[in-house]
TrEMBL record:
One of its GO terms (biological process) is regulation of transcription by RNA polymerase II. One of its GO terms (molecular function) is DNA binding. PROSITE patterns: HMG_BOX_2. It comes from Parascaris univalens (Nematode worm). Residues 131-140 have a biased composition (Basic residues). This is HMG box domain-containing protein. Residues 123-152 are annotated as: Disordered. SMART domains: HMG. Keywords: DNA-binding, Nucleus. GO terms for cellular component: nucleus. The keyword DNA-binding applies. SUPFAM superfamilies: HMG-box.
């Protein structure tokens, strides 16, 4: 018992639990139990709630209460003003909004807990897909911004993409209708004859030729700038 007690201070949570189980079978449980505070413990990671059930920031409640649309004032300017007002509040003044946020989260958790297992799983998977979609969009946007900043020419659309752009004239913003229209256009493209496709093939060829020339010029200029930069750094 004395040996186990002297080692308990350096034990991990799992090792301490194993020793404690052994101790319960003997007469050394008491000294080990008294040293339970020295064992490292890890909180069980709480499973994140899906979209629609997550906590609303306290600032959102402050915003809802104080935002007033004024003529001649841009929304961004109004938001900056409210953000400054929020930052100027002390902890006591902010407590009201933190309490509202906590109370709403409690209600959301209760509603989520009332759902069946299948529905919970479906919502979590849907939320995960949405996060991954947003991440991909963010990465694409960052790449596009970087490419635009560099001045590098953008690869033109293919014949198929030109056809889809022409036929995908959808005014609706409903994702389901857009997907349906996309499928219809994709099937229609496959049914076109080579003669009907030639219009888009020719247009794509012209764009590709223009792109090749622009890319060649860009590469030449970019290599010149890179050479000058390296030469300057070498001299310095």
């Amino acid at each position: 018992a004395h040996v186990l007690c002297s080692c308990a201070r350096n034990m991990s949570g799992g090792m301490f639990t194993l020793c404690a189980r052994f101790a319960r079978l003997s007469d050394i449980a008491a000294p080990l139990k008294s040293l339970s505070c020295y064992a490292s413990t890890s909180k069980r990671k709480e499973i994140a709630l899906p979209s629609g059930y997550r906590k609303t920031p306290p600032f959102a409640f402050f915003l809802k209460e104080n935002f007033i649309k004024k003529d001649g004032v841009k929304v961004t300017e109004a938001m900056i003003e409210l953000k400054n007002r929020w930052n100027a509040l002390n902890a006591i003044e902010k407590k009201k909004y933190f309490d509202e946020s906590d109370a709403e989260l409690k209600e959301k958790k209760a509603k989520f807990d009332a759902l069946d297992v299948e529905e919970k799983q479906r919502l979590r998977e849907e939320s995960k897909r949405n996060r991954e979609t947003r991440k991909r969009r963010r990465i694409r946007a960052e790449k596009a911004a970087k490419r635009e900043k560099s001045g590098r020419p953008i690869r033109p659309a293919s014949a198929y993409n030109l056809y889809m752009k022409e036929k995908m004239d959808v005014t609706s913003k409903v994702p389901e209708k857009i997907r349906e229209r996309f499928k219809e256009c994709a099937i229609a493209w496959k049914t076109l004859t080579e003669k009907e496709k030639q219009k888009y093939i020719d247009e794509a060829a012209i764009l590709a030729k223009k792109f090749d020339e622009e890319r060649r010029i860009w590469r030449e200029n970019n290599e010149k700038h890179s050479t000058k930069k390296i030469f300057k750094e070498t001299i310095d």
